[in-house]
Design a protein that fits this description.
This protein is α+β, with helices and mostly antiparallel strands. The protein is built from two helices and three strands; from the N terminus they run ααβββ.
């Protein structure tokens, strides 16, 4: 019952609360699983196409592009605090557009730049 977080004695159930992105924006690509393989491995490529998620691919590519831009333009050595989240449309709730949120801070946190765009 470490830290009082277990829900039962099975040691497999933990209580947790989802932290909304407007409270804590996740790191770039956080929660997305990426797999790479050799470009000439047709068998593996075929298998990976079966599990590829198009929306996750768009989100990961967009978030990674934001990170690449930060890395390219950053005047600091190392990577400053950066976070991003690309959210897909949610047709059921009436949202038919992608939404991108990004954050870049100075290493000491004294200045913060945010991006909030509907695409």
């Amino acid at each position: 019952n470490r830290l009082g977080m277990l829900l039962d004695d099975s040691c497999t159930s933990y209580k947790c609360n989802q932290i909304p992105a407007d409270v804590l924006l996740p790191g770039v690509g956080q929660g997305i699983i990426a797999v790479t393989c050799r470009t000439n491995d047709a068998t593996t490529i075929s298998l990976l196409k079966e599990v590829d998620n198009h929306e996750n691919r768009i989100a990961a590519t967009t978030e990674r592009s934001f990170l690449d831009l930060v890395d390219h333009l950053s005047p600091w050595s190392g990577r400053p605090p950066v976070a991003a989240l690309m959210s897909p449309p949610d047709i059921e709730s009436g949202n038919e557009f992608w939404h991108f949120r990004g954050l870049l801070a100075t290493p000491d946190g004294s200045r913060i730049l945010t991006v909030n765009e509907t695409l």
